[in-house]
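Practice set, problem 2.
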Amino acid sequence: MRMPGLDLLRAIAVVWTMLFHSFLVGGLGEDWSWLSRYGWMGVDLFFVLSGFLIGAQVLKPLANGGRFSFRDFYTRRAFRILPAFFAVLALYLLWPGFREAPGMEPWWKFAGFFMNLSIDYTHRAAFSHAWSLCVEEHFYLLFPLLALALLRRPSAHVFVAVCVFIVALGIALRTGAWLHFDALGSDRNWFVENIYYPTWNRLDGLLAGVVLAVWKTYRPDSWARAATRANVVLVAGLATMALSFWLFRERGGLLGNSIGWPVLSLGLVMLVFAGAQTQSWIGRRALPGAGWLAAVSFSLYLTHKPVYGLVEAHFGDALDGETYLAFAVYGIASLLGGAVLYYAVERPGLRLRQRLMLRDASPRAAKNADAILLER
């Protein structure tokens, strides 16, 4: 079942991220800079959506007394992520002109999904947006194991304690890193390399989504009651987002990078809750085009930065100073690039996954084979 509200949020997340990365080609100009300033938060919205949807996918069979299949789960994840990712990685490696920046980390850091833990951002920034996929892959690897461990002896108190520990640890690690590197006065981009990219500093959004999945799965009556107040939650989420904008008014500052991330995640998770309700303002009907953008969002995310670079290399001089024309050309080219990857690689991969799972003897696998459109 499609959820129009979640489709809308996923579409906003990818477009917002694309607007932020417009700095690669000179930005949107002073009149439109407000559209891109906080666009990096689009990735955090993806994290909350992923925590919610993947968390529910893991927890639902366990809550129903069933058996969690690691094989089914990792097969689904592999066919969802790897075909498009490795296709783009191959382009980066084989076609230097495809890169939006001259330097690039070795291929094995990308293939092993740990380039976010070891990157020279100043000199090797090409395909650096793959950092978020590394965080996601770490989540896919570890969350099912943690969920099974916690559910051996289910305890609300233990779950709350784990959540509090993760949030507190993130605040402590980011604060410690900021104070350490700020005192050193290092010339390298330590904010990106040591605070923004590492997985252990970026768990707030994923955790917020998982908490939402736990609530929906294990407290369905409470979830249903709260759903009647979805628009109130939506307004509260927007207000909390405004607070996070203030905390991150200096993106690399201590205030945002200490307590800003959990506040931002709280605001985003309220928006996701509202988006998951069919009676909310954003969830009651599909917005034209949002469903398509949501479907191709992963391919768009992978390709938009190199497409920006290609357009700038071939048409940058002609577009210089043409704000509205440049906006249209870069945007349309990015949409075309994402669509090509989606229809040529990502969608065939999903169809292959569906056929493989339908062949599986597991009734669960056959039942789940159609549930591909809501996944991150």
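Problem 2, part (b): a different protein.
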Amino acid sequence: MKLLEIYNFLDSISPFSLQEKWDNSGLNVGSFEKEINKVYLSLDIDNELLEQVEPNSLIITHHPLIFAELSSLDFSKYPSNLIQTMLKKDIAHIAMHTNFDKTHLNRYVFEDILGFKDKNSTDYICVADGNWTKDELINIVKDKLGLEYIKAVNPKDNIKSIALMTGSGASMIDDVEADCFLTGDIKYHDAIKAKSQNIMMIDIGHYESERFFADILFKHLEVLPILAIISNSKNPFTYLNENMNK
């Protein structure tokens, strides 16, 4: 298939026009006239992924490889080092970021993974009403997202409403009307603000909450006459503990 055909299909299921103005979803590397032999799906692009990808392929990721303006291509620096490898292997790249958050990812994680029922989501934030104890909610999050540890802010014994935004959503706290907000990348001052506003927050991890991107998109691509391969990038974080070397 031509890359343009694939791009138009992606646009039909999650319009690129929905992306935020600061985002860089869409074609990051390549040409619309390029013939694509295989499609690889991943949260991000890293060196390990590029070693697996065959020449004349397309990588579709959630996060754009190119975010900030590139004033030069220094092949010793990220992301230019990855772009160099992609150019040598004739690999194209399309990102589906904030547009896919709005149309698919947030609701999928909230309903299909965590098992909550979204009552009235905005573009980003899903909300459910119910009745959970602190321990019940923490166990659901740990089990469904595969988290070994939980970092929480302002824990409450009883929770009657839950909100979620995958990835890094703490900046959206003023739009949250719930007892507990689930999101990733919670910073110190986000925690101070949440505690002041009496909102419980649980850090569900950026990678951990968005790693389902490839699985969701794969189901849509099955109708296309081209092989799609789920080949997710690795979590860049390593979690250490005192028993690791014992």
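Answer key, part (b): Residues 98-113 form the longest helix (16 residues). The two ends are 52 Å apart (CA to CA).
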